[in-house]
Design a protein that fits this description.
heterodimer, A: about 450 residues, TIM Barrel, ten-stranded mixed sheet, 14 helices, 15 strands, B: little secondary structure
């Protein structure tokens, strides 16, 4: 299928079957939109239509337009490739929107013992089959509240990985409150990626991300994050913000982060049941316009030699992952699991603490077959609503947990999430086109 | 006028499973495979990654 869209009077056609992006003039866009997406056919002369059809046919012949979409179901492996290790269910902040119940996951505040963490590493290695590269994300609560355990777990995993012929890639997600020199040094040596939570402008951050005493945490974390980023070199990190209905002007927060020296940024819509913070249908028009504003500012920075990486505007249409990956959904509950402090296993961090999704324990190594099969069956083609969406091979059907929490069905995407995703993808495609044009011009 | 901006390169690898887990990225809620790369091809092009 094709998707015809325009970004401020620049017209694009994306072909989902081939994964190709084309730019076109308004007449071609109007004609294609009317003919293939429904609508009123423009009053063009026969000659004009023939000209457009010739261009279309030429791309069709090259396999770049109206290419049939491959409907092959993914081959599901039973190899485990990644764990989200909830190294502690406690946090030194009390962020209002926290999906994890301010670190406690609707249960008691607790820390993972070294023994449980080692069992989790053993569970991952044993379940990984022939896979060589394994991933562990230290998650919480706030992982830096137990840095000593993390250090020992990393050393253990490296040692056991060497024995088993596995390479570990570690990530830590942190609020940066305890990000001191020792932690920075350790992260730079051992972490493939570090995700640092910072919501943007001080007033936005402080309104939500508060200390236990109810004070805003911005002043405590900003210098730690700056120091870390200065020391990071070319290793990967993301400064990750969350926007809520209280800051629908979140492009200002992204730009604020960029202007504070952070060149790798992500900004995600909040997932919360708190009514006054939740993203609702009525916010969508404003959010979609805001993504355009962000896209414009992002390209202004790029053109001015101050470009930065914004997670959702990176779309790789030339390389990217293979088709198998594109149709496989996120892998939660089958190749990716969360382990909570007592060693219980859940499909992912978003399901942690929900007893309906308790899959087993690292102490037995057994996984609930029914739950695993339910997740393993998940793929793009089980999400019926995705069938006629242009974005399906880019978003892969979205987040199973988000789908479940909003619609009650993992295979039923939440329309609000879809609207935002599609807009980000259109912006990402415009960014791709703009950067290519800029490179050509500068050569 | 139709001008191609971007088209996929031919790939040799498909379904090897060596790619990163989608959720281990920056978002943890807004997963997308559209910005991921093929790990095997990346490693082939950058042998440092194999170490």
């Amino acid at each position: 299928m094709i998707h015809v869209f325009n970004y401020k009077n620049i017209y694009y056609v994306y072909d989902s079957g081939s994964g190709s992006l084309h730019e076109c003039d308004k007449d071609t866009a109007d004609y294609l939109k009317a003919r293939y997406e429904g609508g009123v056919m423009p009053d063009f002369s026969a000659e004009k239509i023939a000209e457009i059809e010739r261009d279309v046919q030429s791309l069709k012949d090259s396999g770049l337009l109206f290419k049939e979409e491959v409907k092959t179901y993914p081959i599901k492996s039973s190899e485990i490739k990644a764990l989200c290790l909830h190294i502690c269910h406690d946090c030194n902040l009390r962020c209002r929107y926290c999906f994890a119940d301010e670190g406690a996951y609707h249960s008691k505040r607790e820390f993972m013992s070294l023994e449980t963490a080692k069992r989790a590493i053993d569970f991952l290695i044993e379940g990984s089959g022939n896979r060589k590269v394994l991933e562990v994300d230290f998650f919480g609560g706030e992982p830096l509240m137990c840095l000593d355990v993390i250090k020992e777990v990393v050393a253990y995993a490296r040692r056991e990985g060497d024995r088993a012929g596995k390479k570990f890639l570690f990530t830590t997600t942190t609020n940066a409150l305890l990000l001191d020199d020792d932690a920075i040094d350790f992260f730079n040596r051992e972490m493939e990626n570090v995700v640092l939570s910072l919501d943007g402008r001080q007033e936005v951050h402080d309104a939500i991300r508060k200390t236990k005493n109810g004070k805003g945490s911005f002043a405590y974390v900003i210098e730690n994050i700056k120091k870390f980023v200065r020391s990071r070199g070319d290793k990967s990190y993301y400064v990750r913000g969350t926007f809520t209905s209280k800051n629908l002007d979140f492009s200002k927060d992204v730009i604020f982060l960029a202007e504070n020296g952070f060149d790798s940024i992500s900004m995600e819509p909040v997932v919360t049941e708190i009514d006054e913070l939740a993203i609702k249908e009525e916010h969508i028009p404003e959010i979609l316009s805001e993504y355009e504003r962000l896209c414009d500012k992002y390209l202004e920075k790029y053109d001015g030699g101050e470009g930065f990486n914004f997670f959702h505007f990176n779309i790789d249409l030339e390389g990217g992952v293979c088709l198998q990956k594109k149709v496989s959904a996120c892998g939660a509950g089958n190749e990716y699991f969360s382990v909570v402090p007592n060693g219980d296993i859940y499909p992912c961090h978003q399901f942690a603490g929900d007893k309906n999704f308790l899959m087993g324990s690292v102490y037995t190594g057994e996984l609930d077959k029914k739950i695993r099969e339910r997740f393993a069956e998940n793929c793009l083609f089980t999400r019926k609503r995705c069938g006629d969406c242009f974005a399906k091979f880019i978003c892969s059907g979205g987040c199973s947990a988000n789908n479940y929490h909003f619609t009650g069905d993992m295979n039923e995407p939440y329309p609000i999430t879809c609207d935002m995703m599609k807009k980000r993808i259109e912006c990402g495609m415009h960014v791709l086109a703009h950067k290519k044009e800029s490179k050509k011009t500068s050569q | 006028m139709l001008k191609t901006i971007s088209a996929p390169r031919d790939k040799k690898v498909t379904g090897c499973g060596e790619c990163r887990s989608t959720c281990q990225s920056a978002c943890k809620t807004s997963c997308t495979v559209g910005n991921q790369s093929c790990e095997r091809i990346t490693r082939e092009q950058n042998p440092e990654k194999n170490k």
